[in-house]
Predict the 3D structure of the following.
Amino acid sequence: MTAESVVHAEHLSKWYGQVIGLNDVTLSVPPGITGLLGPNGAGKSTFMKILTGQLKPSQGTITVLGEPIWGNPALYARIGFCPEQDAFYERMTGLEWVTALVRLNGFDDAEAGRLAGRALELVELTGAADKKIGAYSKGMRQRVKMAQALVHDPELIVLDEPLSGMDPIVRRKTIRMIRDWGRQGKSILVSSHILYEIESMTANILLINQGRILAEGDVHQIRDLIDEHPHTVYIKAEQTRSLAREFLAYDDVLSLKFEEGAVVVETGRPDLFYARLTALAASGELGVIHEVTSPDDNLQAVFEYLVKA
Amino acid sequence: MTAQEMAAQARSRPGLLTSAARVFDLSLGQMLWSRRSVFLALVVGGPIVLAVALRLAEASGLNFAPNRSGPTGAMIYGMMIWLLYVRFLVPVLGVFYGTSLIADEVDDKTITYLFTRPIPRSAVIIGKYFAYLVCTVLLLLPSVVIVFFLVVPLGRGATVAQMFPTLLTDLGMLALGLGAYGAVFAFVGARLKRPLVVGLIFALGWEPAVLIAPGYLKRATVAYYLQTLVRHEMPQNSPGAALLQIFNEVPPLSTSLIGLAVIVGLGLWLAGRTVENREYVLEQ
């Protein structure tokens, strides 16, 4: 373990009955932003649940900010966790929910209210603070989850698929926000199954598949490999036909098809496509883009290729 | 005090009781306005419907206790307390709410937000238990009061004023019953994967069965201790009296109170220990 690492795991394994979630993982996460990249079922969420003290390792050890995490709730004051699941107390407003959660960190009512207001402002939800969470859009729900993770000003922020379901503009803002937190000295571990998302936040990547860490560090080779595979993007929007017409003019678009209220695009240049899409969403010329997601088959194909190789 | 000192003070880790109180605040509103509460409010409304039907029957000419041989209003009220509230509604409320204290958070996947805060995990179950208690008391006790005022005036038995102290005893007894059943089922809910089924078997199968059987097994029920606290004059030579014979074997009052206190304390302690040590794996 390096003196600086914020998370250190030694021969960490986790299994659920006969199913292996993590398999003999040894790693150190340095301060700053680190991306945890892997397809669904790779073990990302299991790792994040262990390092946030929700699950106990079956074997091996893990320390977070220098202390063991399981059964050590005092350490949670220094950690913020934004889980993957879209789960809330739907009848509460965003402000009520974040305030109620930060009160559990020991803040009094007045301070809790003030901090919750500030956190909602950071994620640009001030205008919707008094709306019920049940009435929030997918992107707003993601952001209010992030607000509860950062409201108590933690040293380590753990974000499990934070960009999932966000529209391009909010996605861009969120990426910028995460980068800002990193610049402010926060340590951030962020998971995704989309390399382009992770890359836009950090060059420091942990590659995980089938419960094992395949590579650590700045992984250009993986990037090259992924570039060789077409990337699928699912776009839920107001005017899918106009968008499709626009996309057909792009050289990098290999194919597209329509689904209910959405258009699914296959591109050979994902970074270029995402940049154009964000600009298009920002201009508002072709109506509102509600949600952008990417199925993880792209990355899965690359991992299959890697494992075979 | 400097701003830094204030911040440090605000960030001091809350203790068990403070944490439990804050979980209580967070949970009460959710519990009160849940679909479960709406459903159980309808169930708890059953005795009120019955009481209204009895009043309508009287208004349409049915004479209660015309010659002192039939059941008076006070007797009917007593039977309703025994058979509907003590035997059925209190255990059912305990099962449905108690087993769900942790299970609902796990099923809804909101447990993550509570378990990643710097509070003892046992504070979560304790806070939610007290929210349960307030919620069920608010559901059940108004129903008892309404039934009391509708049923007791029937016939020529004891008056409302004479029976009023009994009402207060009943309210206290039922609240205590909710507390005891809630603690037992909070533990069941924290420990088992299908707590509702086990809870229903315990409350509606095991308890009634062992209560009418001779031996010591009845001491492993909540109802055994609770029934001592039910104080009603029961009708003689009536089907109701025969039914109530099964509850005749009751421990002394002090034993009952100690027994119920032990059940609450032990149930909550076990539930707290379970939540502290158990992993809750959320389905993906």
Remarks:
- DSSP finds 13 helices and no strands in chain B.
- Chain B touches chain A through 33 residues (CB under 8 Å).
- The mean pLDDT of chain B is 87.
- The radius of gyration of chain B is 22 Å.
